Amino acid sequence: MNYFDQSLSSIHEKLVNKEITSEELTKQTLANIADVDKDINAFINVDEEGAVKHAQAVDEAGIDADNLLSGMPIALKDNLVTKGFTTTAASKMLADFKPIYNATVVDKLANLNAINVGKTNMDEFAMGGSTENSAFKITHNPWDTTKVPGGSSGGSAAAVAAGEVIAALGSDTGGSIRQPASFNGVVGMKPTYGRVSRWGLIAFGSSLDQIGPITRNVEDNATLLNAIAGHDEHDMTSSDKEVPDFTANLNAGVKGMKIGIPSEFMAAGIDDAVKQTVLDAAETYKKLGATVEEVSLPNTEYGVAAYYIISSSEASSNLQRFDGIRYGYRAEGVKNLEDLYVKSRSEGFGDEVKRRIMLGTFSLSAGFYDAYFKKAAQVRTLMINDFTNVFKDYDLILAPTAPTPAYGIGEDVSDPMTMYMNDVLTLPVNLAGLPGMSIPAGFADGLPVGVQLIGKPFDEATIYQAGNAFEQATDFHKQTPKMGGNN
Amino acid sequence: MSERISENQVNHVAQLAKLKLEADQLPYFTEQLDKIIGMFETLSKVDTEGVEPTTSVSDQLNTMREDIADNWNQRAELLDNAPDAENGYIKVPAIIDESGDNE
Fold first, then answer.
1. What's the complex ipTM?
2. Can you say whether the dihedral through the CA atoms of A329, A332, A338, A339 is positive or negative?
3. What residues in A contact B103, CB-CB < 8 Å?
4. Smallest Cα–Cα separation from A319: which of B92, B78, B57, B19?
5. pTM metric for this prediction
């Protein structure tokens, strides 16, 4: 089975009606992955044995008719720890790492009897926007296998777009769910910071990281966020705010809604086809009864600098734990303890990770802290104020997700500055801790283009409502890649 | 020629981060870091006088739990992930250099 014409509810119906068992569904999914992933490389490790065993247990206990995830195969980004099953964060550093506990989101899905079919490829430690920085393989975009799938959740997005799985989890520190969702023509939600527990997410930038769902449509996405959201005593930054049913208002429409398009997000450097996609989406929203107006987020141009200082500083701190002692890669032939640290880290980390660790160490070091880290944290405050001002008058912000459609494999990978500038439209959302979702909104030269809906803190429900209204009025999400190109 | 960070400074930062750059990597990393730091410096244009820095957007501060000891009994599983272990302990190379010649 591929998942091109399926939704969580259509598969659930088949499971409930016993047209298919979870074991059969899981085995068909594994066979499909084996077939398709030869060209896509979306998975680092597939858990054939564990998945089938879990599916058999679910069949034995009976499919829960009230739980859409019961017996449902789902993929996980490989920076979410899974008890007893290899979790690498796409790094040589963790190539053989078997966690001794589950991330909270993994437990939540397992408790709902979703089946973990495997772990998806990503940029090493989530640092990158193309999934070319993986220590193990490069993932290919299903729409054109010469193109990148985006990143860092490129494996998760490509797996869903290629019909290998119905849904996957990713993580988003500066756009790592939304940008690959845009490049692959799928729906990707970065929830409000604190909406989902980060316990068991291998940390990159702790004040920015958030886990979220990647799916074929908005309703499935809302269903999956229902499953993973909520306070967790293991993560003190997870919010104790009540979690609404994100599927409840999906069909409420956008009549009377006020949507702003930030002029700074439509400025020079954004591909014309991408701009046109946003303008077309705005027209659709107007036809559906929303007001769409230009707004301003004046500090947008400083976002990239502020983001890379803050995220690299947090990364340099988080990645100090990889020392070759307790777990992870250990270098051979070392002379003493210092040598062990230095050699293990130098051999275990890839270049992009080293670059970010050094940038962070530099930004936090004596003499530079005020000019870099503190300044970036102050600019972050100004950027939050910009969003707060807009949200006084508007319900949502509509913007491009990425400056361009997917680009060629190998095109930008050796130029970190170009790569960093590609995040200009997504990372302000992380700096402000807001929810943002990319939905399929058009095509440019056969490649999908997504638009981003940004909401007020903890107002994912309005994003889903507007996303669903757009989806009902268009058919971009229904189009599927002719695997390998010629779309 | 780099303007904002020198090869010596990059080496120093790498040392602080417990990383070693090979001689052929040093110019490459220096040039890239120099460009990126140049981009960082665009922030100097922003007036941040009197602006409070934001280090976390979470409103969940100082959530405390009961201080209850819990032995997770996972010693064996933890040691399975250690690169080298002996008699229930993680094994590392000697910390003290007994030769006295720093080798």
1. 0.92
2. negative
3. 335
4. B19
5. 0.97
